[in-house]
Structures are given as C-alpha cells and as structure tokens.
Description:
Layout: E1 5-6, H1 8-15, H2 19-28, E2 35-37, E3 41-45, H3 46-55, H4 57-71, E4 81-82, E5 88-89, H5 97-102, H6 107-124, H7 126-140, H8 151-168, H9 175-190, E6 224-225, E7 231-232, H10 261-268, H11 271-292, H12 306-324, E8 326-329, E9 335-337, H13 338-342, H14 349-365, H15 377-385, H16 393-403, H17 407-413, E10 426-436, E11 442-452, E12 455-458, E13 466-468
Antiparallel strand pairs: 1-3, 2-3, 4-5, 6-7, 8-9, 8-13, 10-11, 11-12
Amino acid sequence: MQGSLLTTKEAALCLGVSEAFLERDRWAGARVPFIKIGSRAVRYRLQDLEHYRILHPQIHQRYGAEMSAAIWPISHPEGAYVREDGVIFYREEEESFTSEILSRHPDCLAEAMAQEYARLYQAHGEEKAEAYLKAISDQLSGEPLSLSATDEEIDAFAARLADQFFRLQRYFNDSAIGARFLGHLTQSKYGVSPLGKGKAKLQSARPLSLPVTEPARKPLWPVSVTEKSNISVPVPETPVTVTGKPNPSFPVSVTDTGITHAGILARLADEYWWRQALRTVHMRHFEHSAICLGLVHSRKGKYVSDETMKRRRKQIRRNRAILENCIATNELGQEYTLQQLAELSVSNPKIRRAELMTRIAGFDSVDQFQQIGGPPVTVWRELRRMGEMGVIGELKKLREAADKGKWERFVMLMGGPEAKRKDFPISLAKQWIDKPNRYKEPKGNKIIGITWEKTEFPTRIHQWPYDINASPIT
C-alpha cells in the first residue's frame, strides 16, 4: 500500500478533514504534499499522509483508528488501473468550483485570489469566500482577451480582428460613416481607439439612419458581436459596392488629431496596429488586476507587478533582435544596425537617465524645483547635434551650453525658467512631409534643425534609409 495514490476524497477521509480543507491547503502552500497527474487530477501518496499524521497527532487523536479502518482496504473505482508495484492510476475527476475558477487566471493572480479566499473562508465561512471568488473572477474576466493570453495568442487575435474589420468595411460606401461606426464598435468592445492618444473622441453612439447603398429608406445592416468576439454581418440582398481598404475615392477629412477617416479604416484593417493596441490594453488590464489583488506595493512589485516586468523584458529582447537585423546606410556609405544607432540616442536608457539627472541638477541651480515650464528638451538635443562652423553670437553660447551639459546656463540663455515659448531666442525648424505613412496619411511635420533670427540651421544632415538584412553587421 506504500505506493498507493489516493483521491482528494479518500485523503480527506484518511486525515479526518473536509475536501475543502485540502483544496485550500493546496493553494495556500501545500502543507499536505500532493502530486498532479496530467493537467487536472490531484492525488495524495499514502506514505505522505501517514507522515503528516505523525507530525500532526491531533488529527489522529481526534478521529482515532476508526477513521483509518474506514478507508482500508481501499476500494478502487471502475476504470482504475493498478500497476504491479501497487501504484494506482485513476481517471481524471471534474475540478471543484474553486479550482475551476482559479484555473481561468494566470498563476500569479490565482495564487493571490486563493490566499484571500482561504482568509475569508476561515473568517466568514464558505459562502462568503465563494461569493468573493466569483465576483473577483467575473471582474477580471470582463475583457474579450484572457488575462493569461500569451504574446502569440494576442498576435493571432489581432490577425482575426483585422480581417473581420476589413470585411466590415465593405458595407460602407462613405468613409466618414464607416469610421464613426466601426471606431465606436472598436472602442466599446475592445477598449482601443483608432484616434490615437489625442483629445479627439468618437461621438456617443446614435442609431445611424444614413444608408449604405440607397438614398433614404434602408438603415445600416445590423452588426452582431458574439461573446467570442466573432463579428458577423448578414449579407444584404441589395448589391453593395465593395470599397475594401481606403482608396483615393474616399473624401479626405481630418479629425483634430490629424487622422483621416480613411486612416481610421486603414488602422482597423491593419494587423500590426491591432497588435500594439491590444498589448497596451491587455497590459493595463493585467496591471489593474494585480494592483487590486495586492501584488503591487512597497514590499513586492513597487511600481509594476513581477509578471508585467517579465513581459517587458521579453519585449525589449524581441525589439533588440529586430533592430539588430535592420541595416541603415547613409549617403556616405556608412552602415550601422538600428540597434547601434539606438544606443547612441535617447532610446538608450543610460543616456536618457543621464540627461534627466543633468536637467534636474540644472533646475535646482536656478531654484526651479519642479520641471514645469522651462525650455523644451528637444531644442537642447538639436543644439547638441550642431557643429561649430558658422555658429556665432548668442547661438554659439546656447550651443556651447548644450554641448557641455550645462542645463542651468541653457535655461537662462533661453530667457529663464518662466519664459514663454514665443520669447525663446531659438525654436525648432520643421518641414512638412507629404509622403504617406502606412495608413495613407501625410507624415506631417519633421524636425530638420533649429531656427534662430529667422534663419534655419540644419542639424540632421544624413539620411538613414534601412533594409532588413538576414545577417546583421557584427
């Protein structure tokens, strides 16, 4: 019998405790050793239970030898398989209410939920504990994407959504109507907005009476969204003009964020836009859940949860691998990987941290204890790009202050910490770029240098087009 494996029910009978006691024990640290068979079945070794009873004699004293006699010899259920060495294998049992709920969530969240469940169970009883567990589980499961979703699952979900929204666009001849309707659907269902981070908001949803193909009789075809995030649109009998992705026939109207209606539709049909948007929402939802469960505090994850930190580090490694595989070449034939160029810019955390400390020390020197107001740091960075040739007068002093890292000197030359932007002696020089981005919108203003006394001084001399190379530069 030393090799026998007992079910939770049999182990509870052996120890004289309830099945709920053993279940709570597993989630609270497993003082009673157990093993898992497959992904769901839990079993206890007889010798482990006997050892536990020796260490906890009050269990045996309370129930006496009659408890042991009640379960031995153990009757094996139908379908059990007994090996020659006495080890017994059972068919997997259905999980209990608690285990089934906890299995829906990532282990780091499930552990905190189980600990709170055990505390409530001891303090207020099973009913209160299960009510808490169900409520918190429903709250964490309110999003279309599971909190336990991996990066690969997020990518697959993004691909499905991009395809579904691309198909939905076929039912809108007017890009403004399609952008408004699908943008609201995206925001209300998935918590992301194609308008970006600006102040523009989609107007509240109203029943749209504008037609898709006919002047004034038929409303928009109804759109239904199922629980599994499958978007379905019934095919109408009336022929519909298929517009597909944005094309020049769409009227170009711009929101107050500079995003066109055609650009909104292009984003909703783009798998890569969905990847980024879903990862951001998923991370925020996960972190909010971790905070609610007490996983972010001064003694544990001080700023973010451990799981979010792991994902962030994984993302950094993934981004680094991509940058190392991209080769940038300027007009002089000089070649660098994008990773090498990134390490020389403020994309490098060490450089960004050193710059921040320089600015903090500079503000302290001019009695500006908070970085509110003051000259823009982008002008400071552009001055550090400049060469010495042709630089005279006040511009030379500003360039030297920036080049030598004297932020307080730079602030005073720009008019002091309380100076207004219109009074700054220099400003950024920008050039409008009509070339479209991946969403068929103009790229907009691009920084090319600085302006001093109505004269532009270019600071970005080289152009760095890049290609993806299978064998990165070493």
